[in-house]
Amino acid sequence: MNLKKLSTLLGLSQTTVSRALNDYPEVSEATRKRVKDAARAYNYSANTRAKGLATGRSMAIGHVIPISTQHEMVNPVFADFIAGAGEIYSRNDHDMLLSVVADIDEERIYRELAAKASVDGVIIHGPRANDPRIKLLQELGLPFVVHGRTSDEVADYSWVDVNNRRSFQRATEFLLDLGHRRIALINGLELMDFAQRRKDGFLAAHANRDLAADPALMVSEEMTEDFGYRSASEMLRRALPPTAFLVSSMIAAIGVRRAIGDAGKKMGRDVSVIIHDDELSYLPNGVEIPIFTAAKSSVRLAGQLCAKMLLDIIASGDRTPHNKLLETELTLGDSTGPAPEGG
Amino acid sequence: MNLKKLSTLLGLSQTTVSRALNDYPEVSEATRKRVKDAARAYNYSANTRAKGLATGRSMAIGHVIPISTQHEMVNPVFADFIAGAGEIYSRNDHDMLLSVVADIDEERIYRELAAKASVDGVIIHGPRANDPRIKLLQELGLPFVVHGRTSDEVADYSWVDVNNRRSFQRATEFLLDLGHRRIALINGLELMDFAQRRKDGFLAAHANRDLAADPALMVSEEMTEDFGYRSASEMLRRALPPTAFLVSSMIAAIGVRRAIGDAGKKMGRDVSVIIHDDELSYLPNGVEIPIFTAAKSSVRLAGQLCAKMLLDIIASGDRTPHNKLLETELTLGDSTGPAPEGG
DNA sequence: GTGAAAGCGCTAACAT
DNA sequence: ATGTTAGCGCTTTCAC
Predict the structure, then answer these.
(1) A16 closest-nt by C1' vs CA
(2) Is the CB of B46 under 7 A from strand D?
(3) With contacts defined as CB-CB under 8 Å, which chain B residues touch A229?
(4) CATH fold for the domain made of A60-162+299-326
(5) Statement: residue A281 has pLDDT above 50
(6) CB A116 to CB B80 under 8 A?
(7) Which CATH superfamily is domain B164-297 in?
(8) Could you tell me which of B335, B239, B234, B226 has the C-alpha nearest to residue B290?
(9) pLDDT tens digits, residue range B77-89?
(10) Among candidates B153, B133, B155, B152, which has minimal Cα distance to B144?
(11) How far is CA B244 from CA A163, B178, B232, B265, B280, in A?
């Protein structure tokens, strides 16, 4: 079924049928109803490509998922982010175009997306210091929203970010208040902006109490489960092992948990850094070594906000930077548990 | 830059330029080179929608990601599956269209994808018994490949599946050979085809040795971490707790591990059900309670195969069912560890 | 080996 | 309130 057939069937012109379906005001209500009923009856939907060609818009948003060349690994938070964004897109009749691409090839992909005009805008993930993608997209004139920020640039682009610094500062303060003095920070690659901010928060919490964070307890690498396992195992074998872990990713936290189990320690309560009143991603259990991880729910929310912001920008044609900093909260469950043995 | 401008620039007709770029044989090599160089220089790529409109093909594959209405949860294996499929698509100049949709709305989405002609084919995930989507897509004439199978239908559709039955049978046999007699099966919802097959394999392994599987050690539910934690905790509190766990999902396995830790048991060696010579997803450590999970690598491979099969089907126009059963192997690491205490 | 022209299915001026 | 027409950017006969 296409517009031509449908309009012949109805004894109307293509124009009128098109206008009726797209809610143009000049069409009479009687006609509109007749047209819409017929469209439903014949299961008619306008051909995406023809519509896009005529309007010059694709009604699609691109997400470029860079896959680590080293580990062939997809960052698992994408699943939740994508789910959040996808929800917004389908609610606004937009499609989501996914490009899974080796992180080396990212620039080429953006150029292609722009040249082929296959999307109206893109979402950028995991910005790095002085990220070249931002300049590129501005040059290409392709609207975009960054999930995260890069510290070293002026804020001349739109972004949505979790307040990483503050949430890690508070998480650290929470552990310090419990009496922990040897807190390990298992962090992401420091060239990633979020890892840098989280570390800042971790250090600030110590500094505010005139304590020194032990550099030997701070590691940063690509966040694999193996990395969590290796680094935590090594730390736990030391004469003075850490009494708590602050872990920057869920995946690495799995490895950390395994290491704690192997070391014969009890698993700690998981405390999540969460947004608003969203639920905990882990249930609490007996506290001995607390582990903090970022909650899935916040990632999903970030996906929704990025998507909404980008659609707004595209619809309004307004290219002045928008941004949104998501404040997080610590949710601690019903009891804070005992202080660590060695003080 | 578009074809018209490019051809004027070159002093050629649109036709010739188009033919040169699309490797039509009748164009002279000299012209082809000149055209391709110019295209690169001006960063020209054919507009996706115009090309699609002219050819009647979208060069895009749809993936409908159903999100559980109960848990608002995305099955995390999608990340790896998508990564595998995406790799194949980009290698073949296809786009991937993702629709994240409440599982209730799936049918509507398929109808729309077909009506709007926004994709050339789709991949179906997580087939259930007598899955209505299969009939629907056949009716719509939209080419598709199913990731998984439904047991109750004749094989008149194309699918790619892991040999779930056999891999779980072998995993169970491995545990039985180690001396385990109380093996827990933490399984997915039994209305999902894969869960049914895995259970079959589990039971077959017992039956082959004239052993009876304890029904109280077999649970099935939507595979959340919480489910893994709850069910394993409960089982471990019993007078006769299980000595090994066979877990149907990585996420649930995290919960199971947590429960094992809480119960004061040591974490088991992780043994993965893997395909071919792909690497282990977990490193082995001290054995006490073995846990089996399906490896991520197999999911990625399945994504690649589904994608490749679908592209082949579309290219050839051949609608006779193709299928592929992926055989799995157990990789056991370097030692099998001690038998369980209570035999 | 190259070009002219029609047409893919739709929207958007411009009539009426 | 409805219809006519041109055109979005490409591919594809058909002609030379």
Answers:
(1) D2
(2) yes
(3) 283
(4) Rossmann fold (3.40.50)
(5) no
(6) no
(7) Response regulator (3.40.50.2300)
(8) B335
(9) 778 889 999 999 9
(10) B133
(11) 42, 10, 10, 11, 19
